[in-house]
Amino acid sequence: LVNDDGIKAPLLEYARQVLSKFGIVYVVAPLNQQSGKSVSNTLSPFEVVKIDDFTYAIEGTPADCITYAFYGLNIEADIVVSGVNDGFNLGVDTMYSGTVGAALQAIYHSCPAIAISSEKGNERQVKNHLERVIDYLLTHKLVSKEYILNINFPLDEKSGDQPVIQMTNLHYLKMKLTGNMVGSSFTTFLHAREMIEPNLPLDSDYYAVFNGQISVSKIYLRR
Phi then psi for 83, rounded to 5 degrees? Predict the structure, then answer.
């Protein structure tokens, strides 16, 4: 189990509790927030903090966590779970995501992996449905060494119904960059953007999460 929000992220511990129902769980997570690091690697030596025999924190990126787990701790993992990320990883954001980056690093080293994300600040959906989603992926044998699975929990349930688990495609939504200089002296730049595409394909990851469905997309490292 790995993430990019850091070892103290609340949903990391919740994910550990859920995954413990399926097997032995090792946690290797960054000491600090590492969002947006993609598959970035630290080329200099980095610090490792052993919390207990099954929990480690590193001064590095999510991808570093995978490398350390496999080659520092020599863990022979059956699967890598990355998340649960506090914020969606849809469409083009999968290129930047440290959550997705860790999963891609795992599959590069021939270990099946899934990346899990949810609406920022929305823990309820995850806590209601994470165990069901993990069981569904394993039962339907969707986990593979050929691709990672990118899961996003929806904005909300429709009419109180249990959200459908929907296989989707990544949709590279059209965005307009609106970043600008901020601060009293305007010496700091802040990234910002806005959606400029009103119509979403019905099979897209965006459409699913905006319509109360749990999105599951395959992302291939190589074809």
Answer: 135, -165
* Main-chain phi, psi angles of 78, to 5 degrees: -80, -30
Q: Cβ(98)–Cβ(35) under 8 Å?
A: yes
Three-state SS at 15: helix
Q: How far apart are CA 104 and CA 164, in angstroms?
A: 26
Distance CA 158, CA 180 (A): 36
Q: Kindly provide the residue ranges of all beta strands, DSSP E only, lying in the chain, ordered along the sequence.
A: 27-30, 48-52, 55-58, 80-86, 113-118, 148-152, 165-168, 175-177, 180-182, 188-190, 193-195, 214-219
Mean pLDDT by 10 residues, the chain (223 residues): 97 97 98 95 96 98 98 97 96 95 97 96 91 97 97 78 93 80 79 76 95 96 74
Q: In the beta sheet, which residues pair with residue 115? A: 82, 150
To which residue do tokens 């207990």 refer? 52
